[in-house]
Amino acid sequence: xxxxxxxxxxxxxxxxxxxxxxxxxxxxxxxxxxxxxxxxxxxxxxxxxxxxxxxxxxxxxxxxxxxxxxxxxxxxxxxxxxxxxxxxxxxxxxxxxxxxxxxxxxxxxxxx
Amino acid sequence: xxxxxxxxxxxxxxxxxxxxxxxxxxxxxxxxxxxxxxxxxxxxxxxxxxxxxxxxxxxxxxxxxxxxxxxxxxxxxxxxxxxxxxxxxxxxxxxxxxxxxxxxxxxxxxxxx
Lengths: 112, 113
What we know:
With 112 residues, chain A is an all-beta fold. Chain A is 0% helix and 54% strand. Chain A is globular, with a radius of gyration of 13 Å. Chain B is mainly beta and 113 residues long. Chain B has a single domain, classed as Sandwich (Immunoglobulin-like). Chain B contains no helices and eleven strands. In chain B, strand 6 (56-58) and strand 7 form a beta hairpin. The interface between A and B is medium-sized, with 22 and 20 residues.
């Protein structure tokens, strides 16, 4: 089975802190994605990557950056956390473009 | 712009009844559609998918119907069980943005005994 893991299930940070969210997939997938999920807004794409060291902006990249140094790992970085970044963050991977995406369990981030 | 909408935010059904969850999409060129299930505290899980060259696809207790004429997608769950209680999302790949999935906001399915 495809497994996508995220480093933390729950995280509490303070405004202005730098935050790292880690995602690892074990199926050698080419594509990886970061979403945030908010009530009433559904899943919104932050960034995605289709290859090592490659990244593309999604729909809401402001305030975020990403890093993909290895194929299996995709990191989301909040350079200076703000309260409006309190959300559920979901990582996903897919083998090819146009394929279904496999999701991790999510990280619920609270910024105080 | 791209959008995937859901007609009902919450659907309540009796255990054993059939459930139908609906989804509308705006891009007539969309060629791939997916239904996901998200249980409380978990990430979305793939349920079933369908490509635009099909009208219907069946899985275990689930059926997806695609009506391209009215740009409508539905998920039917037969003999709904308490374990089916979750939020259900439809999503699609618009052909221009082949790397991305566009998600609906979700429908919460509640199953009562």
